[in-house]
Amino acid sequence: MRPGLQRGEDGSLYWEEVALEAIAARFGTPCYVYSRAVLEANWRAFGQALEGRPHLVCFAVKANSNLAVLELLARLGAGFDVVSGGELERVLRVGGDPARVVFAGVGKSRAELERALEVGIRCFNVESGAELERLEEIAAAHGVQAPIAPRLNPDIDAATHPYIATGLRDSKFGLERRQALHCYRHAAAAPHLRPIGLACHIGSQVLDLKPFRETLKYLLQLADKLRAEGLEVEHLDCGGGLGIRYRDEQIPATAELGRALGAVLDESKTPHPELLLEPGRAVAGPAGLLLTRVEYLKETTAQRFAIVDAAMNDLLRPALYNAWHEIVEVRAPDPNVLAKPEQTWEVVGPICETGDLLGSGRRLRPAPGALLAVLDTGAYGAVMASNYNSRPRPCEVLVDGTEARLVRRRETTEDLWRTEPHPPKAPGRKHN
Ligand code: LLP
After folding, report:
1. Where in the chain are all domains bearing CATH 3.20.20.10?
2. What is the pLDDT of residue 209?
3. pLDDT of residue 360
4. In Å, what is the CA distance from 57 to each residue of 51, 85, 373?
5. Is the pTM of this model over 0.85?
6. How far is the CA of 105 from the centre of ligand 1 (A)?
7. What is the structure's pLDDT at 155?
């Protein structure tokens, strides 16, 4: 069983001390449910892993940008990694400290750069020469200095899904070594730029410590070179990417990542720069689950389908990356049902695409109306939801001990066309 999740004596699943059945009855399904305790424990593990060394942990807002989640982390002193103006505004909205925000992304717009400069973020992780030029021009126009860290593409294989590997030579991310050095030197000489660090993010759902060690070594070596030229490097940002156990993956603990990075730093002869990390999934992933209800069971000669009320618009990961999320029955089947053998089910949603599935080949004993929990969906779950098939996006609930609080209401039908100008209803027809 996952941290925070337990089966009560009544045979029903509890997330912290709240029965998931009670949440479904109160808020409906599909519904994302987050555990404050798990989120906080995962967050604190990063601080503990780097204790005793200068560091800043910046939560990757893209993993879960719910204001309640961000507020909770901001209260714990979190830094934030943002990749858009929208994410920056969310951080500011919950009182997050802009001086602890790093801004990555290959396509930062003029407006986004201006706003981030205006609020005084900690660092722009610059991904191209053209971006640096634009930033310099804006900073000059405003008479300020922009703090920057070139983001490097180290050509390190994170051995993950190709869509989420970002550190290979042919990816759109980061700068090649030569270009990064050029940016750093240029920024050091430019009155409106201030180079403060070097950054990397090699990919996501990384299962092994080796790529992290290599990344830090790569950055240290570059920092040495710059220092030899008389240029200071205050921080090294190793990005995010630590994987989580979705199925049976062997994942190093956060503490092990801290030890591995610490060992690399200790081996290097140069003064230790501040270490930045940008975890998203490892903090939020295991802290969330998606509650969904079985609508119908359908058996064909080829397959058994459990058709549930959540779909790829609610949770895109299985459809997009062929990702595996554990699916469990919220109420343990009663003894009569348990006596029957488990069968293999395709857990699918109502969307009109064959790719709309949440889990394939699952050993379950589903019944119509039964509640299922799709686990480890706290990261890249709700944030990737859409209105495809004109389905309102699900609600989000935060559990804290015995309390459950709605932190995003379910969208209504009206919400679906809120931003679309539309003609008045045709006269003479009643739509109630
Ligand atoms: N920093 C940067 C610059 C990133 O691009 C990312 C993730 C992170 C940090 C956080 O990585 P994490 O610790 O969460 O692995 N939608 C995909 C994941 C995309 C990740 C993109 N970048 C998924 O559902 O697996």
Report:
1. 105-277
2. 96
3. 97
4. 11, 20, 30
5. yes
6. 11
7. 81
Atom of ligand 1 nearest to the CA of 63: 14
Exposed / middle / buried, residue 25 (Cβ in 10 Å: 0-12, 13-18, 19+)? exposed
What SS3 state is found at 385? coil
Residue of 87, 204, 386 with the most ligand 1 atoms within 8 Å of its CB, for mutation: 204
Cis omega (within 30 of 0) on the bond before 162?
A: no
- CB contact set of 74 (below 8 Å; sequence gap of 6+): 80, 91, 94, 95, 96, 97
Q: Which CATH code of 2.40.37.10, 3.40.50.2300, 1.10.287.130, 3.40.50.1400 fits the domain covering 5-34+285-416?
A: 2.40.37.10
Domain covering 105-277, topology: TIM Barrel (3.20.20)
For atom 7 of ligand 1, the residue with the nearest CA is 204
Report residues whose beta carbon is within 6 angstroms of any ligand 1 atom: 60, 62-63, 81, 104, 164, 166, 201, 204-205, 239-242, 278-282, 317, 321, 379-380
DSSP secondary structure letters along 255-295 = HHHHHHHHHHHHH--SPPPEEEE--SHHHHGGGEEEEEEEE
- CB 379, CB 39: distance < 8 Å: no
The packing angle between helices 254-267 and 210-228, to 10°, is 30
pLDDT in tens, 260-303: 999 999 998 778 899 999 999 999 999 999 999 999 999 999 99
User: Looking at the chain, which residues constitute the CATH 2.40.37.10 domain(s)?
Assistant: 5-34+285-416
CA–CA gap between residue 277 and residue 258 (Å, rounded): 10
